[in-house]
Amino acid sequence: MTTRRSFLQQAGLLTAGILIAPSCMVAKADTKNIGIQLYTLREELPKDAKGVIGKVAQAGYSEVETFGYSKERGFFGMQPKEFAALLKQHNLTAPSGHFGLDSYIGEGNEEELKSYIDGAKEVDMKYIIAPYLGQQLRQSASDYQRVAERLSQAGEACKAAGLQFAYHNHDFEFQKFGDKTGYEILLSETDPELVKFEVDLYWVVRAGLDPVELFKKNPGRYELWHVKDMDKADPKLNTEIGSGSINYKQIFESAKVAGVKHIIVEQENFAMDPFQSIAQSYTYVKENLI
């Protein structure tokens, strides 16, 4: 089975994530659309990217979140204008994308960031998201401080281009360095207007934390939610939303505090047909959470 981390290492990409909605009141007001992180369908996309996008729309989704873009490969083998046309054909939008930023964060690769900004704008994205931090970039508190500085600089560049920058978590950010976690450093040492956070709710819960407490401590920073459920028998596995052990109804009650604007479903492993799975998760989110 291909894991996210092994895939990223093999492909030289950085990605991740999912999203879910706010409290009933806020969800209906601010998060009418349900999106999917296309990493969910990473095994199917290389076979028939255009067909996959069509099936995502058929499952009910109105938004997609991309991963793996490069200037050379484009979006899943399509250059931005072609990908944008495909989305429009299926009444889909792509408000956000995961872009591999290790070389920017670690080496200051400005050209790579610029290429991401250009690609994002061509498909009318609103968010550029750092999906992952390579292990070499996160060995100490000072490392996280340097990362925070680079995220802020990326936030400035995105703002100048009319975009919003955001950071997506896993569980490693919650490791403590002294009295602070890496995640706390990133939150405290970045400008709330320049750097938003895409909270991956599964990874927060797996790290032993309560997402609602994060929202209360950092109101308005979590404009994107990655929503994936935790398998009841094996917490290391995902399952369809509403079938696992995460109490999403309770989490959604804090949507207004979090400031969520985009709900993004993600799943990294399947016990059923992937397209049946994403349709089931969509239905649960729409009928029970927003």
Explain what you see:
An 8-stranded parallel β-barrel has the order 1-2-3-4-5-8-9-12, surrounded by 4 helices. The protein has 13 helices and 12 strands. It has a single domain (4-289), classed as TIM Barrel (Alpha-Beta Barrel), CATH 3.20.20. With 290 residues, the protein is of the alpha/beta class.
Topology:
Blueprint: H1 4-11, H2 24-30, E1 34-37, H3 49-58, E2 63-67, H4 80-89, E3 93-98, H5 102-107, H6 110-122, E4 127-130, H7 141-160, E5 164-168, E6 176-177, E7 180-181, H8 182-188, E8 195-200, H9 201-206, H10 211-217, E9 224-227, E10 229-230, E11 238-239, H11 248-252, H12 255-258, E12 262-265, H13 274-289
Parallel strand pairs: 1-2, 1-12, 2-3, 3-4, 4-5, 5-8, 8-9, 9-12
Antiparallel strand pairs: 6-7, 10-11
Helix pairs in contact: 7-8
Q: By helix and strand content, what is the structural category?
A: alpha/beta
Instruction: Please bin the fraction of helical residues.
Output: 40-55%
What is the overall number of helices? 13
CATH class label? Alpha Beta
Helix/strand order: HHEHEHEHHEHEEEHEHHEEEHHEH
**How large a portion of the residues is in β-strands, by DSSP E?**
15-25%
- What is the CATH homology-level superfamily? Divalent-metal-dependent TIM barrel enzymes
Q: For the report, how would you describe the main beta sheet?
A: 8 strands, parallel, barrel
Signal peptide: 1-29
Organism: Pontibacter flavimaris
GO molecular function: isomerase activity
Domain Xylose isomerase-like TIM barrel: 55-273
List keywords for this structure.
16% strand, eight-stranded parallel beta barrel, alpha/beta, two-stranded antiparallel ribbon, 13 helices, 12 strands, single chain, 290 residues, TIM Barrel
